[in-house]
Design brief:
homotetramer, 233 residues, alpha+beta, eight-stranded mixed β-sheet, 6 helices, 8 strands, globular
Chain lengths: 233, 233, 233, 233
Amino acid sequence: MLLKSLREEVLEANLELVRRGLVLYTFGNASAISRTDGFVAIKPSGVPYEQLTPHHMVVTTLDGKVVEGDFRPSSICQLTFSSIGNFLPSAALPTRTRNSPPRGRRRGGPSRVSGLPMPTISMDRFQSLKTLHPRKWPETTRENTGAAICRLFKDSDPMAIPAALVAGHAPFCWGANAAEAAHNAVILEYVARMSYYTLAIHSESKSLPRELHDKHYLRKHGDNASYGQGPTR
Amino acid sequence: MLLKSLREEVLEANLELVRRGLVLYTFGNASAISRTDGFVAIKPSGVPYEQLTPHHMVVTTLDGKVVEGDFRPSSICQLTFSSIGNFLPSAALPTRTRNSPPRGRRRGGPSRVSGLPMPTISMDRFQSLKTLHPRKWPETTRENTGAAICRLFKDSDPMAIPAALVAGHAPFCWGANAAEAAHNAVILEYVARMSYYTLAIHSESKSLPRELHDKHYLRKHGDNASYGQGPTR
Amino acid sequence: MLLKSLREEVLEANLELVRRGLVLYTFGNASAISRTDGFVAIKPSGVPYEQLTPHHMVVTTLDGKVVEGDFRPSSICQLTFSSIGNFLPSAALPTRTRNSPPRGRRRGGPSRVSGLPMPTISMDRFQSLKTLHPRKWPETTRENTGAAICRLFKDSDPMAIPAALVAGHAPFCWGANAAEAAHNAVILEYVARMSYYTLAIHSESKSLPRELHDKHYLRKHGDNASYGQGPTR
Amino acid sequence: MLLKSLREEVLEANLELVRRGLVLYTFGNASAISRTDGFVAIKPSGVPYEQLTPHHMVVTTLDGKVVEGDFRPSSICQLTFSSIGNFLPSAALPTRTRNSPPRGRRRGGPSRVSGLPMPTISMDRFQSLKTLHPRKWPETTRENTGAAICRLFKDSDPMAIPAALVAGHAPFCWGANAAEAAHNAVILEYVARMSYYTLAIHSESKSLPRELHDKHYLRKHGDNASYGQGPTR
């Protein structure tokens, strides 16, 4: 079986999305890329989560051809596949990311709600957020969602903003590996819920001051990060 | 015991509604029809879900006479019974559906909320939605809810819109079999929740553009469907 | 141990409130009265639910004197105690109720929200609802909440409306026995949640037409009731 | 191992926050102080809750120096550390509190929502609530959040109002020990949820009359308290 550990990582990320209540039935999926092999491990389309094993994962080439697997891959992965390669360019990302720039995806909940701006509340994970409004991009083929996300990020670091909100659709999330992509998706939903609460009782809410936002973001990112179990300074 | 597998299918659909949080106590029910036998399997009225076995299901004729069963059938099934035969006409449906056009039903949650239009967000399952406003139909007898739903669908394919929203009431859902009817009820509730979130913070929300909606619907339905584990094309 | 089965019934009603998510920590309680004995079984005050056994229940006289029990009874029961005797008068209630007119009580959730009218959606259990607005009744002593509820029901049948909404407070619910009181509390919360959803997106929502409301209520109550597993007619 | 029972108390308070759904992943934490030892037991930073044992807790001095522990303490504890000593001054607090004035903290949910006033509904635990608006205090260093909370309480008894709402941030909660701090955090969130429901459907909601509020608060606090299993009077 090709890419056994990548298959397991993808399965685990998918199950995390289920445990956190982000998917319903067979909606949503996470996948992961191996840059060294040039392959992607993808959840199969339409198979109930409770039946999934590493064996069910489908291994494809970077342009979506099935290399190994008895199942059809999730069509949504094919949809965004080529563009992922684009908006996670090697130059902009740390090594590990270059080797495995996967992304999680799920449907439902407040993050999927109409394209209103989210008051971004202490988002340690997200330097800011970007939203794709479907009325603003020409939607003619499936490939366009991925291409539109690429355009949206053409002047931004996708690792500092590891998600794209898509109005009328689930957000697309990614990270240094499949677990981090799922983690980002869970946190985004949580933050979206708080934004929803805020907007529901105070529709004029503004984001926090930029300085405060930066303080929280930089506590966990960059040269002066102080959070977590890194070496004590 | 008549219709053993149909009884089991109906029981399982009822339990799925419970697992998904769509019913409270004895509210709501799913039932199924066997066109070849001319019988219906129905959940009994007022029996707690946790006690239900296939034996509890009541088998009736198409006009509601009990054929086999120690319990009184759910009155709501009698209510809509004759009309189901009408709005699932044999000509419009695939064979399997003609043999078992059942329907699920449940109370509660956002889908039951006032008769406002739902911004229909990427509904792969529902080509569109139809709502019955009680103030607009003459409500004199129990049979009228079913008859009113029939009139509502007289120019539509009920399998492309497998649910009727009823203002001030739980929606009525159906499908090719009891499992699919329950599945549709769960998805409808999920979509209704997203519509609720959207309307709560942005009461002027519009539906997505029709082209985008069609793209999602047609990805799973019709001759060009590409989703799931059918034969790879 | 006095009133063993009544103690068990009260414990079970309290646990049902916990299972349904209606209580937090030691908030809320259910109790039951034995008219033949002239005693009340009450949950003790401030004891965590997970530790409760029938032994913890406190038996008091109708005027609140402890007859048996190692614990202090919930003060909220003492609060409403004498008035319960008033607003459940023997003449207005069926026999069984006269022997045990208990009441459940719990805090939290939408039913406790500000004293806005609830659009009463298909309430099979409640002919209508009554709300006590604290600003409208002289609140000087603890006994007044019970007395105020009595005044609220002086021209109504408390068994047709087995709950009182109290603005800024949890509702008070009752029934023919402790289980039914808890059941009514759960249903009230569920209906309140739907009313909340409705008002949140459509603040001008009106109740359903009275005829429709009566049809649902009378399906389960009175001489022409047809719901449940009574003798088939 | 230093402060074994304090470590266990802190771990248990952290787990209570998880059980009650107040934390996501490694967000939020509870810690406790031993005034007699002059040490603090703190949850480590960024370690998943499901892996935590008493051993993981970090013991520090009052000015944040690690005394014992293999992990880096939660930075948020360091953040507020020196100020806790200030706003829980020995003179104002009962003995036990002086020996262990800990505080819980968690992120998320309605209590974290924008700095609108909460209609304070029957808060037995909170005499009133105080909110820190970030736009109103100079936010230049980490220490400022704690210092700002101290200023906010300079004329108030922190044990009568055992929490500070911080707009755009999780609230800070405290109590006589870590368990009580967690308890207060859970209750605050619950009350915040009710306030949210109220504001969502009635944005002009006012607090209950002060007399009614005092009645509920004084039922559980002060010389005339009557709630719970203290000696019967």
